[in-house]
Amino acid sequence: MLEHILGQEWEITPAGGATGEAFYARYEDQSLFLKRNSSPFLAVLSAEGIVPKLVWTKRLENGDVITAQQWLEGRELKPAEMNQEHVARLLKKIHRSEPMLGMLSRLEKSPLNPEMIFQSMINEVDQETLSLPEVKKALGFLKHEAKNIHSEEKVVCHGDVNHNNWLLAEDNQLYLIDWDGASIADPAIDLGMLLYWYIPEENWQDWLSMYGEELTDDLRLRMKWYVVLQTISSIQWHKNKNRFAEMNNWIQFLNDIL
Where is the Aminoglycoside phosphotransferase domain (predicted)? Predict the structure, then answer.
């Protein structure tokens, strides 16, 4: 099907990924990253320089849309590199971007508030996970603090700032890829994940200074609240996939942060 669009001379290989909807295509010195039905949001991400350049978009007869992006030689960031200034700056650029916020709003993404995020986590977690002592303790914390979690600021959040999603190209340009989980919400969602996973607590203020934010008690609480919530989701996700060693790591992590 993709050969039909590109021509027989292109070599097309699956690009892995959760959905099986992504492919690499090569022909002579050209390389493209193809994806089926990626979000219309991709055009803005490309224009803002957040993801590798969008080369073309084609609609198929069956209604599917194929996007082609420049395929860049590069590598994922290592966990130890998440403390660098260009990471903080790119995340700030994303959180500040009016075009991205406008586009997501037009795609009928309404801003998420803490109650909605809490509720969607509860809906996906089974009884067995909810009865773990660590999770019970975490739910107590989440419910108790819920009334204190509010932010006037609603920005485009990536939702999975794992080091694997940061692509450093050969020309040293940094990109943040895989935007399937994007939402309009409190920036503390992205900040909390990044700081809790990668940055020792004594360096949080330094990292936030590069990002352009003060480490207030309010921000600290909001980050902790969202990380606790996210961690319960991670426990359930690994459980669903029968990855019990990872699940236990997340249970331990939950215990540590509480």
Answer: 15-224
**Distance separating alpha carbons of residues 189 and 68, to the nearest angstrom:** 30
Q: Is the pTM of this model over 0.85?
A: yes
As a whole number of angstroms, the distance between CA 84 and CA 88 comes to: 7
Kind of pairing between the strands at 166-169 and 174-176 = antiparallel
Q: Which domain holds residue 59?
A: 2-71
* Residue appearing with tokens 């290592």: 78
Is there a catalytic annotation at residue 160? yes
- Our measurement of the distance from residue 232's CA atom to the centroid of its chain's CA atoms, rounded to an integer in Å, reads 17
Per-residue pLDDT tens digits of the chain, which is 258 residues long: 677 788 888 999 888 765 568 899 999 988 999 988 888 899 999 999 999 999 999 988 888 889 999 998 899 999 999 999 999 999 999 999 999 999 999 987 899 999 999 999 999 999 999 999 999 999 999 999 999 999 999 999 999 999 999 999 999 999 999 898 999 999 999 999 999 999 999 999 999 999 999 999 999 999 999 999 999 999 999 999 999 999 999 999 999 999
Is 91 found in the same domain as 67?
no
- Euclidean distance between CA atoms 180 and 145, whole angstroms: 29
Q: Which of 50, 71, 92 is the last residue of a domain?
A: 71
CATH number, domain at 67?
3.30.200.20
Pair 35, 80 in one domain: no
Domain boundary among 25, 44, 71: 71
Active-site residue identified among 29, 64, 126, 160: 160
- Reported for 24-31, long-range contacts at CB under 8 A and 24+ positions apart, including other chains, are 24/71, 25/68, 25/71, 26/71, 31/70, 31/71
